[in-house]
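Structure ticket #2291
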Amino acid sequence: MNAEEFVSGYVKGSDLPPGFRKRMRVAAVSSAGFDDGRKLVVFLDEFCGRGVPLNQTRLRAMIEGCGHDTEHWVGREVDIFHATAFYQGKQVAAVGIAVVERPAVAAPMSQPRIAKATFTSSVQTVAPTAADEPLDYPAGQAPFDDDVPF
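Resolution: structure written out below.
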Protein backbone atom coordinates (compact mmCIF):
# COMPACT_ATOMS: atom_id res chain seq x y z
CA MET A 1 0.00 0.00 0.00
CA ASN A 2 1.27 3.43 -0.93
CA ALA A 3 0.91 5.87 1.99
CA GLU A 4 1.18 8.82 -0.43
CA GLU A 5 -2.43 8.12 -1.47
CA PHE A 6 -3.60 9.35 1.93
CA VAL A 7 -1.79 12.68 1.83
CA SER A 8 -4.14 15.56 1.03
CA GLY A 9 -3.81 19.25 0.44
CA TYR A 10 -1.34 21.03 -1.79
CA VAL A 11 2.36 20.49 -2.34
CA LYS A 12 4.43 22.76 -0.09
CA GLY A 13 8.12 23.53 -0.02
CA SER A 14 8.53 21.50 3.15
CA ASP A 15 7.29 18.42 1.24
CA LEU A 16 10.35 18.52 -1.02
CA PRO A 17 13.74 17.52 0.39
CA PRO A 18 16.70 19.84 -0.25
CA GLY A 19 18.21 19.12 -3.65
CA PHE A 20 14.94 17.69 -4.99
CA ARG A 21 14.44 18.26 -8.71
CA LYS A 22 12.16 16.21 -10.93
CA ARG A 23 10.65 16.58 -14.39
CA MET A 24 6.87 16.17 -14.45
CA ARG A 25 4.02 16.72 -16.87
CA VAL A 26 1.08 19.10 -16.28
CA ALA A 27 -2.08 16.98 -16.06
CA ALA A 28 -4.63 19.75 -15.33
CA VAL A 29 -4.99 23.39 -14.34
CA SER A 30 -7.69 24.64 -12.00
CA SER A 31 -8.39 27.56 -9.69
CA ALA A 32 -8.97 27.43 -5.96
CA GLY A 33 -9.79 29.85 -3.18
CA PHE A 34 -7.14 30.61 -0.56
CA ASP A 35 -7.03 32.97 2.41
CA ASP A 36 -5.24 35.52 0.24
CA GLY A 37 -7.56 35.14 -2.76
CA ARG A 38 -8.03 32.85 -5.77
CA LYS A 39 -5.02 31.18 -7.31
CA LEU A 40 -4.38 28.88 -10.19
CA VAL A 41 -3.34 25.38 -9.20
CA VAL A 42 -1.29 23.14 -11.47
CA PHE A 43 -1.89 19.42 -11.07
CA LEU A 44 1.02 17.28 -12.18
CA ASP A 45 1.21 13.65 -13.22
CA GLU A 46 2.73 12.88 -9.82
CA PHE A 47 2.04 13.90 -6.20
CA CYS A 48 -1.07 11.65 -6.09
CA GLY A 49 -3.52 14.33 -7.19
CA ARG A 50 -2.08 17.09 -5.01
CA GLY A 51 -1.66 20.39 -6.82
CA VAL A 52 0.95 23.11 -6.75
CA PRO A 53 -0.61 26.53 -6.07
CA LEU A 54 0.85 29.21 -8.30
CA ASN A 55 2.07 32.23 -6.41
CA GLN A 56 3.12 35.23 -8.51
CA THR A 57 6.64 33.86 -9.11
CA ARG A 58 5.47 30.42 -10.26
CA LEU A 59 2.61 31.97 -12.26
CA ARG A 60 5.04 34.22 -14.16
CA ALA A 61 7.27 31.23 -14.89
CA MET A 62 4.31 29.29 -16.33
CA ILE A 63 3.09 32.25 -18.41
CA GLU A 64 6.59 32.91 -19.80
CA GLY A 65 7.10 29.25 -20.66
CA CYS A 66 3.62 28.20 -21.80
CA GLY A 67 1.74 31.39 -22.70
CA HIS A 68 -1.32 33.08 -21.23
CA ASP A 69 -3.89 30.43 -22.21
CA THR A 70 -3.96 27.73 -19.53
CA GLU A 71 -5.43 25.24 -22.00
CA HIS A 72 -1.99 25.14 -23.62
CA TRP A 73 -0.33 24.24 -20.31
CA VAL A 74 -1.73 20.71 -20.12
CA GLY A 75 0.80 18.19 -21.37
CA ARG A 76 3.79 20.53 -20.99
CA GLU A 77 6.80 19.36 -19.02
CA VAL A 78 7.99 21.30 -15.99
CA ASP A 79 10.82 20.84 -13.54
CA ILE A 80 9.68 20.94 -9.91
CA PHE A 81 12.45 21.65 -7.44
CA HIS A 82 13.15 22.56 -3.84
CA ALA A 83 13.73 26.29 -3.52
CA THR A 84 13.86 28.88 -0.78
CA ALA A 85 11.99 32.14 -0.44
CA PHE A 86 11.62 34.92 2.07
CA TYR A 87 8.26 34.95 3.84
CA GLN A 88 7.57 37.49 6.60
CA GLY A 89 11.28 38.23 6.83
CA LYS A 90 12.34 34.59 7.21
CA GLN A 91 13.85 32.22 4.69
CA VAL A 92 11.52 29.26 4.18
CA ALA A 93 11.36 26.20 1.94
CA ALA A 94 9.42 26.73 -1.27
CA VAL A 95 8.40 24.91 -4.42
CA GLY A 96 10.18 26.07 -7.55
CA ILE A 97 8.86 25.51 -11.03
CA ALA A 98 10.59 25.87 -14.39
CA VAL A 99 8.97 25.13 -17.73
CA VAL A 100 11.01 22.81 -19.91
CA GLU A 101 11.55 24.38 -23.30
CA ARG A 102 10.35 22.38 -26.22
CA PRO A 103 13.03 21.43 -28.71
CA ALA A 104 13.10 23.63 -31.74
CA VAL A 105 11.16 22.13 -34.59
CA ALA A 106 12.87 22.26 -37.93
CA ALA A 107 10.88 24.00 -40.61
CA PRO A 108 9.29 21.54 -42.99
CA MET A 109 11.26 20.99 -46.11
CA SER A 110 9.78 22.82 -49.00
CA GLN A 111 8.84 21.01 -52.14
CA PRO A 112 11.63 21.09 -54.69
CA ARG A 113 11.05 23.64 -57.35
CA ILE A 114 10.83 22.37 -60.86
CA ALA A 115 12.47 24.66 -63.29
CA LYS A 116 10.34 25.62 -66.22
CA ALA A 117 12.21 24.88 -69.39
CA THR A 118 11.41 26.45 -72.69
CA PHE A 119 12.06 24.31 -75.71
CA THR A 120 12.29 25.65 -79.19
CA SER A 121 12.60 23.63 -82.30
CA SER A 122 13.90 24.82 -85.56
CA VAL A 123 13.05 23.04 -88.74
CA GLN A 124 15.21 23.60 -91.71
CA THR A 125 13.77 23.21 -95.13
CA VAL A 126 16.19 21.60 -97.50
CA ALA A 127 15.77 21.63 -101.24
CA PRO A 128 15.47 18.12 -102.71
CA THR A 129 18.51 16.76 -104.47
CA ALA A 130 18.94 14.10 -107.09
CA ALA A 131 19.87 11.61 -104.38
CA ASP A 132 16.45 12.14 -102.79
CA GLU A 133 14.56 11.18 -105.98
CA PRO A 134 12.87 7.77 -105.92
CA LEU A 135 14.62 5.17 -107.94
CA ASP A 136 12.82 3.47 -110.75
CA TYR A 137 13.60 -0.24 -110.91
CA PRO A 138 12.53 -2.39 -113.76
CA ALA A 139 9.62 -4.64 -112.77
CA GLY A 140 10.69 -7.57 -110.64
CA GLN A 141 14.15 -6.18 -109.97
CA ALA A 142 13.40 -4.16 -106.86
CA PRO A 143 15.93 -4.71 -104.08
CA PHE A 144 13.17 -5.96 -101.79
CA ASP A 145 10.17 -8.22 -101.98
CA ASP A 146 6.91 -7.48 -100.19
CA ASP A 147 6.12 -11.17 -100.01
CA VAL A 148 7.56 -12.20 -96.69
CA PRO A 149 7.77 -16.00 -96.41
CA PHE A 150 6.79 -16.25 -92.78
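Closing remark: The first strand starts at residue 21 and ends at 34.
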